[in-house]
Amino acid sequence: MSDAFALADHLAKHGQSHLLAGLDQLDPAARTAYLARLHDIDWAELHHHLSTHTAGEVASSRVVAPEERSRRAAEFAALGEAEYRAGKVGVLMVAGGQGTRLGSSAPKGCFTLSPLGHKSIYQLQAEKVLALSRRVGRAVPFLVMTSPMTDAETREFFAANAWFGLAEGQVRFFSQGTVPSLDQQGRALLAGNGRLLENPDGHGGCFTALVKSGNLARLRAEGVTQIVYIQVDNILVPVDDPLLVGLAAAEGTDVITKVLEKAHPDEKVGHLVKIGSRDHIIEYTELTPEQTRQKNALGELVYRWGSPAMHCWSVAFLARLADAGYKIPLHRSSKPLKAWTPAGGIAEVKGWKNERFIFDLIPEAKVSVGLAIDRDGEFAPVKNKDGADSPATANRLASDLYASWLRAAGVEVALPANAHIEISPRYAATQAQFLARWDGRTRRVAGDFFLEEDR
Ligand code: UTP
Q1: Domains of the chain by start residue, with CATH
Q2: How many whole angstroms separate alpha carbon 164 and alpha carbon 238?
Q3: pLDDT tens across 378-388, in order?
């Protein structure tokens, strides 16, 4: 659009003319910035939010279930180990969300979580990348996606903590985009005069942001072929996972989705299933109780595998989509929003928040495989302040996992209900590392027990 008239025309076509109402009250700099933002937004896509209904026959996806996983563990692990050592693996952590449920205004990663080491979530995640880098003898690229709301604070936090021991330049920050929030009639809301009300564009924003920031091209140029994708708020998610990376190499996958066998058919998760010829994640909210009980020819539940949002993405796959100009579609959800109007100032209104979901990339993949994981070993989410999926439950799950490592080393663990075990990722980030390093310093743990690397 070359001028203001064309923009006005374009906004009118999309029912957004009201956005130009207060223009003459803005100073020249604010006006220029506002018009540039209005010009950049893809107004058409805001009308085409994704319908989640997908046509086609639903069947089971290819999943490496526990039996195959154990049988082929050594084969996959050897392949994956070679990939790590050859510098073909990067780690991408999405950390751009607003963490509203946790109730802290700071980025979720800055939250002090661990019970004995008093480490932040960022420190726990970064130290896993540090442990991995030391083990494989190279600075594994650690990409951290922030949002415009968390970017500065996240960078300052890492800098103030000397990047948690990671090498200079190893942590690559990039920010996701934002999308306008809409009222119930689909009109963009304002946060003030000359300021749209926008929210971060969801974890799926990492695809466009990886491309736009130049990070995908940089990974390609460096010869990185696989990205281990993690979310900041799962404190047990492994980044040192040769079995995962080896499976990707063995089967030439575009994407691997880690999956958990559902505890019961009605568990509230997104499911990995095949629809037609492609894999999809179908949310429990989209299924009837009959569908969740549907069985395949082998008598297994079709909606058997839940996704805890851990993936391994092929760089070539992402690059192919980027080259084709692919954009992850928007989903909208109804939310109470604080919006500004010239007449009423800031007030709460019911409207639509728009977001992109990373798993919408899965149907684009020709080769998609699920990898079953152990429920207790890799998933400890921090979502809420209290109750389920809170710091308390995540710390309990972590402590239980570390207790199992100690038991595997022959240590007797008799922990009182309120005591914790914490093993620093710098000491050991996986059970295998722990067993290799454990010096038998105690034969019994009966209270708080913190294992940190001697510095
Ligand atoms: P959640 O869906 O739990 O959202 O994010 P959230 O913003 O962290 O928390 P609530 O819903 O406001 O309480 C799952 C993961 O996706 C990332 C989060 O940082 C978290 O790792 N995420 C989410 C983004 O990176 N960007 C987003 O826009 C949304």
Answers
A1: 2-40 (no CATH), 47-383 (3.90.550.10), 390-455 (no CATH)
A2: 17
A3: 999 999 999 99
